[in-house]
Amino acid sequence: ASPFVLRARRSMDKTGMPWHLRYLGQPEIGDKNRHALVRNCVDIATSDNLTDFLVEMGFRMDHEFVAKGHVFRKGIMKIVVYKIFRILMPGNTESIEPLSLSYLVELNVVAPAGQDVVSDDMRNFAEQLKPLVHLEKIDPKRLM
User: Fold this and answer.
1) Domain 6-130 maps to which CATH number in 2.40.10.220, 2.60.120.260, 3.30.70.1890, 2.40.320.10?
2) What residues does each domain of the chain span?
């Protein structure tokens, strides 16, 4: 069985913003013609002591990075354009270097189960970006 994975994130620009904890389920194995990866997601806002709480629960940090960019919305779609920066000294977000000169474009939609029409909307939006960006469905198992 795959490990239980949680993702914790927070804004570095605005102090006092809550941490966000996200659980992403395993991708659904279904129709290969589906244009988007589909999986369960639980996202909650938490207090400032989230990292201490997760360590006490037995979780360990696997990786840490800084993402700098912009968030756009089009209906229920969230488009995030950002660069990923590697943290040179763990815990010090001031000491960073870019992993690449390229930007990452991520397209997300949170929708109820069974809404396969949403993936068609994502595909249509991706087609509009095609001259500039090549959007593809990424298999997370391939990255591990």
Assistant:
1) 2.40.320.10
2) 6-130
Strand (E) or helix (H) holding 68: strand 65-74
Nearest alpha carbon to residue 87 among 102, 103, 66: 66
Secondary structure of residue 44 in the 3-state scheme: strand
Structure tokens at 86: 């590697």
Report the run of H or E that residue 114 belongs to, with start and end: none
Please give the model's pTM, rounded to 2 decimal places. 0.74
pLDDT at 140: 57
Q: Which residues contact 85 (CB under 8 A, 6 or more apart)?
A: 65, 66, 67, 68, 96, 97, 98, 99
Q: What is the pLDDT of residues 45-80, one digit of tens each?
A: 999 889 899 999 988 888 889 999 999 998 888 999
Strands 65-74 and 77-89: antiparallel
